[in-house]
Amino acid sequence: MDTRRIIDKAIEIPVVTSFSRFGFETRRRLAKWEPLDGYDLRGRVITLTGATSGLGRAAAEQLARCGATLVLVGRNPERNAETAAAITSATGNDGVSHWAADMGDLDQVRSLADHILGAHDRLDVLIHNAGALTASREVASDGTEATVASQVVGPFLLTNLLLDRLEASAPSRVLTMSSGGMYAAPLQVDGLQMNEDSYRGTDQYARAKRAQVILNEMWAHRVGERGIRFHSMHPGWASTPGVDAALPRFAAVMGPVLRTAMQGADTLVWLAADDGEPLGTNGGFWLDRRRRPIHRLPGTRRSDTPDRRARLWSLIATLASCQDPWTGSD
After folding, report:
1. What average pLDDT does range 188-199 have in this prediction?
2. CB of 278 within 8 A of CB of 229?
3. What distance in Å separates the CA atoms of residue 101 and residue 322, rounded to the nearest whole number?
4. Is the full-model pTM beyond 0.90?
5. 240-295 pLDDT per residue, tens
6. Catalytic residues
7. Residue at 78 is within a domain
8. Which domain holds residue 140?
9. Number of domains into which the chain is organized
10. Under 8 Å between Cβ of 26 and 20
11. What's the order of all strands across the beta sheet hosting 228-233?
12. Residue 208: what pLDDT?
């Protein structure tokens, strides 16, 4: 094992050093990362949800600087238009468009897919970044708990609807912004959607993020032979408007060591842009441009059984009201 990997593993053990600005800066220097500005994405079409603030906004601007044709997705049409205009002005990239969709509303997800298929003859990267942590329990229009609807079910449906276009554009990628918070959550199926009596926003968020990471591996295993690479990642601890609103005490106490939004988004952009390891592997979970384990605790590892995985896939496909894109056996 070389010195860089030894140091990286030492940083990985304590969460504070791994997830903080310190972890990012140390790994960047040790590995001598390729600067993101060095990637040329002209001719590549990328759809990015949750694009108007925080990590998504930072990633969108960097992808535009690299020349990508972007479809920015957010819930608010006016805010989408403002973001697209600002990114075009900042980067000189006039290939930035936008579309309004709530990822928890399946009809709007279907309209988004129709728009992408009609507006672009290829899709190189689909990025699932939309997400929020809410203190009180909310439900989507179909009755599904809102966090699960917008961060698990909606992305599953959108991937399903765009699968053929992604295959036709291969090698292509589907990327999911998860969270290190999922490390504390076992894989839940029957309890994936918390009820009103037991609801805690942080727990619900962690359960959804765990489901995202498991489904990412399952997508890679089940349809990866179609030339599509599936990866998920977490940003570490980054300072964003979402963190400030959802976890104000954490943001205040940890503020000095939090990553910037662009530091949090770095690995997402790298996974979208780099034609080396991101295309040479599939089903990975990443932090700071290195593949990481999806379990840190024995209890979450024990929860991750083949039967529970199969039931999760079946549940989400049913909630998404879509034709299951995979009918084989694991």
Report:
1. 96
2. yes
3. 18
4. yes
5. 777 767 777 777 867 788 999 999 999 999 999 999 999 999 999 999 999 999 99
6. 205
7. yes
8. 33-319
9. 1
10. no
11. 96-100, 69-74, 45-49, 125-128, 172-177, 228-233, 284-287, 290-291
12. 98
Contact predicate 204/145, CB 8 Å: yes
- Is residue 141 domain-resident? yes
Residue 330 pLDDT level (bands cut at 50, 70, 90)? low
At 115, which CATH number? 3.40.50.720
CA distances from 195 to 105, 145, 191, 246, 272 (A): 20, 8, 9, 20, 36
- Whether the upstream peptide bond of residue 171 has omega within 30° of 0, thus cis, is yes
Tokens, residue 165:
């276009």
Distance (Å, whole) CA 12 – CA 292: 9
Of 117, 160, 162, the closest CA to residue 317 belongs to: 160
Taking alpha carbons only, the member of 282, 287, 284 closest to residue 268 is 287
User: 180 in the Ramachandran plot: left (φ > 0), alpha (ψ -120 to 50) or beta?
Assistant: alpha
Residue 297 forms part of a structural domain = yes
What is the pLDDT, as a whole number, of residue 328? 61
Residue 7 lies in a domain: no
Q: Name the DSSP letter for residue 235.
A: -
Cα separation, 93 vs 11, in Å, equals 38
- Give residue-wise pLDDT tens across range 49-72: 999 999 999 999 999 999 999 999
Secondary structure class of 116 (helix, strand, coil): helix
Q: What is the Cα Rg of the chain in Å?
A: 19
